[in-house]
Amino acid sequence: MVWNVRGLNDVARRSVLRNLIIAQRPSLICIQETKLSAICNATAIEFLGPAYDYVYLPAVGVARGIALAWDREVWETSEISMGRFCVLAGLQRLGALPNLWRFVGVYGPQQDEEKMEFLSELSQLMISSPGPWLAAGDFNMIYRACDKNNDQLNRRTMRRFRAFLDHTHLVEIELCGRNFTWSNRRQNPTLVHLDRLFVNAEWLDLFPAHSLKALSYDCSDHCPLLLLLNAPSGLLPRFRFETFWPKVPGYDEVVASAWATVPPASDAFRLLD
Asked: Which CATH number belongs to the domain containing residue 64 in this structure?
């Protein structure tokens, strides 16, 4: 579960989060904008319950802050580290094959001058630790015009975000049933898709039957996101062409070989000349 709660220093928000955790029983929880400079065991148990271990990135003054928690009976953790905008942990299911993957919980800065530092930090983490990756949280950036319900766009930041995704070969997990994850809650609201999950091809190989959905909420202007790693099978996955594919060595040869192959179908309606 991923959620920007806008302050766990508020007792009501801690109560809402606790009830949500009881209802959904997630095995991994990432919370952004905790606004807590320190999280003691008593406070953690208050909003998480006793089943979770946790680490946290302290808030800066009364802003920022990330908490990452995991069910100790489900996940074994390693390689835990903190950045300026990120919390990183290696994860492996207890009693399962050694399929280590890395989760990085992020809370992107709001100031434009810090956004490139944020993307650089993420990029360095992924370069230094190859393997399956999932990056999740409030990125405070968008990379497509359709991620906002008006035309007030910072296209320079959008280009930089897209360049980062191409460079790291990350793809977004599609959010089902909702176009936006944040609202300013005004009469004519601004709606933006700020909260996202990105993965690489190795992670998709580990968890091909995933599904991402939004949960209901009433105490934050961000909606919680719930990722299912073993979602019930439904429709066939939609094909997407990723912009970085033509840059991969051997791309032209694979396309030329596939294009020259004669399809096995005998039905002329299914053949494209």
From this structure: 3.60.10.10
